Amino acid sequence: MGEGWRGAAGSRDGVGLQLMIHSVLFDMDGVLFDSMPAHAASWAKVCTEYGLKMSVRDVYLNEGRTALSTIEVLTQRTWGRSTNQEEVDKIYSLKCEEFKNYPEAPVMPGATAVLDAVLNTGQQIYIVTGSAQDSLLDRIYSHFPGYFVRERVVSGKDYTLGKPNPEPYLIGLKRAGVTADEAIVVENAPLGVRAAKAAGIRTIAVNTGILDDADLLNEGADWVFPSMAALAEAWSELQKTL
Ligand code: MG
Which residues neighbour ligand 1 (ion) by CB within 5 Å? Predict the structure, then answer.
């Protein structure tokens, strides 16, 4: 096992689970695509211009929430009031427009290697993302050709309660036809980790952004890796420890 990654105390349960992990549920932004820098800059710029306090770090800390939930957090914090659908639609469309000004997010280094390692282990791959932007969802099929089919992608269009609610991952389990014990999640966001753990699924965090490992471990991540490349390298050995 390579240096540079660590497991939390909660990861030591495990007797012969190697054969029980049938499905790996991947988050998308910050895991498969290196898209968080553009998301963070877009959210922070648009919200700040609207008068809402939001730093780039705030975006990373709130990653995974729906637009409604994100803006509700901000209006409560800044103005002590709730938001409404009209306001959410306005800010979210501005954010999507701003996002288009950034270069297309590249595939996360090491992501394809992780997918290959998982498939080589005989496990199925799924995506569970909060994103509902067609422009991003379409890129899954063009940038990971042959890896995913629509039925194996749970998007923000498939549920109403976004992360940190467990609903997205519970839908992911249902799609995969497995129990929580038979799955593993790969996440980069603290609230994504919280959602996956609330669904009862063991969770690998990859710290691909600007947060501290502690931000992910505090939400219950069972392991933290510094990159997808490091996870790819460790995958087969990690299976032995499950
Ligand atoms: Mg993410």
Answer: 27, 29-30, 188-189
